[in-house]
Amino acid sequence: MMSAAAADDNNNNNGNICANCGKGEENGKSLKACTACKMVKYCNRECQIAHRSQHKKECKKRAAELHDEKLFKSPPPEHGDCPICLLRMPLLDTGRRYMSCCGKEICCGCIHAPVMMIKGI
After folding, report:
1. What percent of the chain has pLDDT over 90?
2. The pairing of beta strand 32-33 with beta strand 104-107
3. How far is 19 from 79, CA to CA, in rounded Å?
4. What pLDDT shows up at residue 22?
5. How remote is the C-alpha of 31 from its chain's centroid?
6. Which pLDDT tens digit goes with each residue over 87-103?
7. What end-to-end distance do the CA atoms of the chain give, in Å?
8. 56-65: b (≥16 Cβ within 10 Å) or e
9. Residue 87 in contact with residue 80, Cβ under 8 Å?
10. How far is 99 from 59, CA to CA, in rounded Å?
11. How far apart are CA 90 and CA 96, in angstroms?
């Protein structure tokens, strides 16, 4: 026999059933997701309030994970990646150079690499 928590998990995994009362999307009424964690859906505000005590702990955990993902997501690189070594381009203009032969910017490490190979350094 399933526990209440296991039954609750089954309802949540379906995605088309209210986590509290078990009603589906009927008569064109769409279910509304929990605004904090986006994991469970409810048919109305009353069902959300009634289910809050069962959902609160899991909701706070998932909401914190979503917040951390958003907070620690690295910003896109301003100048892109070097097409040769695929490392992020330096922020200073002195760390990268425009190559007129191919129309690309490459990092200074890639500029000096062929010279060092020729000299045997």
Report:
1. 22
2. unpaired
3. 46
4. 86
5. 23
6. 777 777 777 877 777 77
7. 71
8. eebbeebbee
9. no
10. 52
11. 7
Convert the pLDDT of each residue in 34-76 to its tens digit: 999 989 999 889 999 999 999 999 999 999 999 888 877 766 5
Q: How confident is the model at residue 77 (pLDDT cuts 50, 70, 90)?
A: low
Model pTM greater than 0.90? no
Contacts 24+ apart (CB under 8 A), 52-59: 54/4, 54/5, 54/8, 55/8, 55/19, 59/34
Amino acid at 28: G
**Could you tell me which residues come within 8 angstroms of residue 41 by beta carbon, excluding any fewer than 6 positions away?**
15, 16, 17, 18, 19, 31, 32, 33, 34
Q: What amino acid occupies position 74?
A: S
Read off the amino acid at residue 107. Answer: C
